[in-house]
Amino acid sequence: MILWFMTANAGKVAEAKEHFSHHGIEVKQLEFDAIEPQADDLEEVALSKIEQALEHLPNPDDMVLVEDAGLFIEALNGFPGVYSSYVLNTIGNEGVLKLLNHLKSDDPIQDGKLRNAEFKAISVLHHRGQTIVAEGICPGRIAHSQDGEDGFGFDPIFIPADLDGDGNALPIGEIGEVSTHGRTFSAIGLEEKQLYSHRRRALATLLNSIGRLG
Ligand code: ITT
User: Fold this and answer.
1) Each residue's pLDDT expressed in tens, for the chain with a length of 214 residues
2) In the chain, what is the straight-line distance between the N-terminal and C-terminal CA atoms, in Å?
3) Closest C-alpha to ligand 1, atom 7
4) In the chain, what are the domains?
5) Catalytic residue among 61, 62, 68, 150
6) β-bridge pairing 116-127 and 130-142
7) N or C end of the chain: smaller count of CB under 10 Å?
């Protein structure tokens, strides 16, 4: 079974390939100059992308996937969120770290929370006239400095929350059975990132629903 992933981001494709390879689905990148609307929420952007993807699908019977993701930093009221690409292309990871370094609280509990953040992904899968939408969230925090070489985007500055034995995210700072021990997504690499990833969570939900598409 072929699944076309419409994205310009090779890092996303690598993660989707890794995930679907365990389920007998071949992922291929569908790349063209898509127009990314500036909208207030990820789902609106993702649904606009799927409309465009359908016009470029090599075979109308194939499945097509799009995704819109973003990094939401609590102390910045969710910024950069839907502006994540723009922020990465302008101030970059160093700029985000500088922004957060200006924030300080005298209350140690509040101070610890200032770096809380989450990745969110909305994935949309379309097959023969039917559309499924799934969300994946990965809570975590922003590191004090960049760490690691792997991955893409904000991976060098994002430390995911630990997980319990069932793969559920624990409150930030709690030590879990599954832990990066304070390392970022870039430092742990693709396979370990999948344990925590917002993308993998959204894709797993989609995969559970594919059967319903017939
Ligand atoms: P598309 O062609 O699929 O739109 P994109 O890179 O523009 O690719 P998004 O708009 O979904 O992707 O993502 C917004 C930004 O967030 C973008 O700069 C990504 O690099 C970054 N991002 C998304 N998922 C990420 C992840 O898992 N790790 C690190 N950064 C991520």
Assistant:
1) 889 999 999 999 999 999 999 888 999 999 988 888 888 899 999 999 999 999 999 898 899 999 999 999 999 999 999 999 999 999 999 999 999 988 877 887 777 788 999 999 999 999 999 999 999 999 999 999 999 999 999 999 999 999 999 999 999 989 999 999 999 999 999 999 999 999 999 999 998 887 665 5
2) 13
3) 85
4) 2-212 (3.90.950.10)
5) 68
6) antiparallel
7) C
